[in-house]
Amino acid sequence: GYDEELYLRTKGYEGKMYPQEMEYLGEDHSLQSRLARARAKVHAALDSILPSNESGIMKAMLTGDKDDIPAESYRLYARAGIVHVLCISGLHMSVLALYVSFFMEKILKQTKRVSAVATMLAALSFLLFIGFTPSAVRAVTMICVVMTARVLFRSHDRLNEIALAALLILFIEPLYLFHIGFQLSFVTVLGLCIAAEHIERRGREGRSWKDDLRESLAFSFYASLFSFPLAAYYFYYISPAGILANLVIIPLSGLLLGMGIFSAFLGMFWMPLGVFAAGSVYGILKIFEMTCTLLLQLPFAYVPVGRPAEGVILLYYGLLFFWLKYSERKGSWKGAAILCIALWCAVFENQLFRKETTVTFLDVGQGDAAVIHTWEGNTYLVDGGGEYGKEFGENVGHTVLLPYLEFLGVTEVEAAFLSHPDRDHMTGLLEIMEYMPMKRFYLGEYPYEVTKDFVFLKEMLEKYQTTLYTVDDRSHSPDEEWLCLAPVSEFFFSEGEDNHGSMVLKYTVGDTEVLFTGDMSFECEQLLLKKNADVSADILKVSHHGSKYSSNNDFLRAVAAKAAVISCGEENLYGHPHTETLERLAEAGTEIYRTDVSGSIQVKLKQDGTFMIETMAERNPLYERIKKTVEKR
Predict the structure, then answer these.
(1) Tens digit of pLDDT for each residue in 490-505?
(2) Do residues 364 and 385 lie in contact, with contact meaning Cβ atoms separated by under 8 Å?
(3) Beta-carbon contacts of residue 629 (< 8 Å; ≥ 6 apart)
(4) What is the pTM of this model?
């Protein structure tokens, strides 16, 4: 779902270029280059006074450069709901404004009007230094409105500040409307403004520390309440733990930013003193880490929910605004009840009305991987892909399969079927084991060659205590939708030919049948036909990535598929799919879909026997075709 073109356009880029030669002409002394060199000096200072992990976090907080944030730290902060501290946001800008105002008024004894002007200049300068991100522009605009009101002795209104900031940003770049930073920033600050209105009604006289704690909790609750739908839409989870985490993180963030700036400044001129000052920075970051780790032990601290539909998000905000606006009116419960019912129906509309099951053939390059997500909420995996030459933990299971499962909101796999223990089918499944439980794991009843990969498979199953079932054409799956056609019992081919032992599965939804063939060989196809196995299906996952040594004419006529899916890598070394296979499929009257051409392919199966096929991406966008043309020339 990543729209690279939209993302680049919001950053001000119109296209891509692929230079073949580069020539050094000299140094660039523009303001942009000077600012880049200044940021590099801050980075060097942070690297010299802090360990690498903490340095990467502080670079993000002080300069907006998130490239060096450790992946584990980012995942921890994100799951705990405090990822906002890792990017330049309203929190950082507000702290900066408070520091400047305090310094001007309390230390230099300047008037409020002078301190307001200085605060605006400092905020604008910092914005220029870090770059014009939507959240930072929004915060600086609101700060400038408040400070301008102070200079002119006028009052200011929070909603007008938000509207003015939005209009300014969209005037500069209208596409920011689709930017996650823009949406989250404005929705969250809107929640904070509404929280402020509700809290101010209760008055501030005779307050105790309990009242302050209750107020802080209310602000954190409202901010989370407004940001949850967008967090679910873009990240596929919500973090209720953030409501509590912010009670610790927000107060310490001001001190962290102040000490971070001070330590970096000292580190650029006298490193020993900078290291000494950075001790407080290190300590605060460790408190952040311990807070997140502790809170994530709580039940429902981190809840994977998958991506909600746009209609669900609109209904959620409609119910939220209705509750905030009319909750105190007599009879308002009726309207709230109607909205709640509508929201409930929208969330569960597939289970209630459509009852649609999806079979998605993921684009994992030269390999096989399919995800079946039923309308009841069960998830099955048929193979998991795997690229040769990529390390375990960094392969397609982590980069392709896991993000899609998170997109669906999957927390456990009902069953995984491995057609045969080849790396391009197996690696992704084993990587998924490290993230979520698998209730059952199926492998063919066949004397597979005992390779390093096969031994590793057994070790992973034992490590994660996953139950292994070996099946053949006599076996009965506990799930009635699945039927195993191969391996054929008591019939083994020559040793070392694991493709001959590929598991062949038929999956049935209503009147629609999908046939998964793994890397089944020509000989196995003939064997199935000889024993009169029912191989007919509406959708065929073509065997062995479209190899000419599979999918013979007799077999294709027996299957009589309306659509065939070929899972293979773009410009792979084997030349898959072979021309002979494509010709045989065309002769059989089968519509062909290929992952190397159309990306991931999703089939929506309905209970009435109909299905719809949708391709996810255009494999060769314009700039890639230009690049290839240039390379060929």
Answers:
(1) 777 665 578 888 999 9
(2) yes
(3) none
(4) 0.86
